[in-house]
TrEMBL record:
InterPro entries: PhoU-like_sf, Put_Phosphate_transp_reg, UPF0111_domain. This is DUF47 family protein. Transmembrane segments: none annotated. It holds the Pfam family PhoU_div. Belongs to the UPF0111 family. It comes from Streptomyces similanensis.
Length: 206
């Protein structure tokens, strides 16, 4: 058997880019959910579920490549962390959409659209950043901006919680809506984890 001494490093970069592009698809489905009536949400949830499965496939492909590569473009634990965090983002977005459908939420509280807009912007920045892993150039602004967006998401989340507990909603509705906005906040946190991992990789490689 002939051993490959040099890794096909480009495969990792391409797979990270594909995973991030899929997250952009998920963020667009979240945006679509905002403007959809209840009858259309089930179909959006199906497309989000398909996107989440595609994300799982991308993550498994990265892990398979990681396990079969003798040499990797950067530390194995960082590759694993980056792939896992990208997968987490997709999982949280899919969970949020699924909860809206399962709970038969008639109207999302004001402020959720701001949460989703932050996620959509973070998704775009992440997709733009992944190709730069090849050279480690022009990444500083990416992780600074994603961290800023995560801080913005925290503020939006706190305002949403205050709104939910202002007495307008009954207790059951509060529980449903709180779970949805909490999951969206977890998605924002996962974007920050990705950005922090990219920063760690860039520092090690500099």
């Amino acid at each position: 058997m002939r051993f490959r001494l040099t890794p096909r490093e480009t495969s990792f970069y391409d797979m990270f880019a594909a995973s991030a592009d899929n997250i952009v698809t998920g963020s667009k489905l979240l945006m679509e959910l905002l403007g959809a009536d209840s009858s259309a949400r089930g179909e959006i949830a199906e497309r989000m579920r398909a996107a989440e499965h595609a994300g799982d496939d991308a993550t498994h492909a990265i892990f398979h490549q990681l396990n079969s590569s003798f040499i990797t473009p950067f530390d194995r634990e960082d590759i694993y962390s980056l792939a896992s965090s990208l997968d987490d983002i997709m999982d949280f977005m899919e969970e949020a959409v699924d909860l809206v459908v399962l709970y038969n939420v008639e109207e999302l509280p004001k402020g959720v659209e701001q949460q989703i807009e932050v996620l959509a912007r973070a998704a775009e920045l992440t997709a733009e950043a992944m190709p730069h892993l090849r050279t480690m150039d022009n990444l500083t602004e990416y992780w600074i901006e994603v961290n800023r967006l995560e801080n913005q998401a925290d503020q939006i989340h706190r305002k949403l919680l205050a709104h939910l507990f202002n007495g307008k909603y009954d207790a059951i509705e509060v529980l449903k809506l709180k779970q949805i906005v909490d999951v969206l906040e977890e998605a924002a946190d996962a974007f920050e984890h990705v950005a922090n991992t990219v920063e760690t990789i860039a520092v090690k490689e500099s």
